[in-house]
Design goal:
This protein is α/β, with parallel strands linked by helices and 271 residues long. It has nine helices and eleven strands.
Length: 271
């Protein structure tokens, strides 16, 4: 099998069904499977997925993994990854819609690019505008340059302009193709991350293992952006969800140093 698409659902039934229907429409000529982990949803998701699983198109292409509670994004993805039979892995957010040739473009580029470890699709907002989906690694050096010396764009998400593939530090996990080489050298996601930072951490490991991360404008996917994580906390409290993952990613000392740089920099900019 060529491609395993791994999806995690948590109370986003309608969006996830829409995602599956877009895969069904655009993936007909591919050898693929979908592995969908449900993280203890209570919105009727499981019943809807069980019905889809019985449809003729999906009967041999759909694996449903059920958790009693929310196991976290990384762990739920790994449950799918560990059962995947495909050569290539695509971690796809439940709140996405696959555009024409998006999957084929990812595979074609991956096959033609031996040093690729992770490939991220071009993401669009629901109004068709470009969604920022790449990161520079959030190092102390980049924080100082941006927040103390005013070099903009080092800490914010961005999206390269143009039609050619671009090498970047990291791409977001919404549409995240893992090549066989990365799977062999890096393995699965770090399950210490409940939510956030697991994608940038994986990209960091990819670079450490001698592979590269690419942004591929040829592969286009609409992303509703944050639909699942809105279920975890309201807007005002969501930043607090980042703290445990930040401490894991940076280490506790670097986490507090970075926060001090960001805090002082933002305070100076206001004055």
């Amino acid at each position: 099998m060529e491609l395993s698409i791994v999806i995690v659902n948590f109370n986003t039934k309608d969006l996830t069904v829409g995602c599956l229907r877009s895969i069904e429409k655009e993936g007909k000529d591919l050898s693929f499977e979908v592995l969908l982990t449900d993280n203890g949803s209570s919105d009727g998701s499981v019943e809807a997925f069980k019905k889809i699983k019985e449809e003729k198109f999906w009967r041999n292409r759909f694996t449903l993994i059920l958790n009693d509670s929310n196991a976290g994004y990384a762990k739920a993805n790994n449950q799918g990854i560990n059962r995947a039979k495909g050569k290539y892995l695509l971690l796809l957010n439940s709140d996405t819609v696959v555009h024409e040739h998006a999957l084929q473009s990812l595979l074609r580029f991956a096959k033609a690019t031996p040093d690729a470890g992770v490939i991220g699709s071009k993401l669009l907002n629901i109004d068709g505008t470009l969604q920022m989906s790449c990161y520079n690694f959030p190092t102390i050096g980049n924080a100082i340059k941006e927040y103390w010396f005013g070099q903009k764009g080092l800490f914010e998400k961005f999206a390269p302009i143009g039609k050619k593939p671009v090498v970047v530090d990291s791409v977001v996990g919404a549409a995240f193709l893992i090549t066989p080489e990365a799977r062999s050298r890096v393995g699965i996601l770090d399950e210490r991350y409940f939510a956030y930072f697991e994608d940038i951490d994986y990209c960091r490991q990819v670079w450490k293992k001698g592979l590269k991360v690419y942004y591929l404008p040829d592969s286009v996917i609409t992303h509703y952006h944050g639909a699942t994580f809105k279920k975890l906390a309201d807007e005002g409290q969501r930043w607090k969800k980042l703290i445990p993952s930040s401490k894991i990613y940076h280490g506790i000392l670097k986490h507090y140093i970075l926060n001090a740089i960001l805090w002082t920099g933002q305070k100076w900019q206001k004055n």
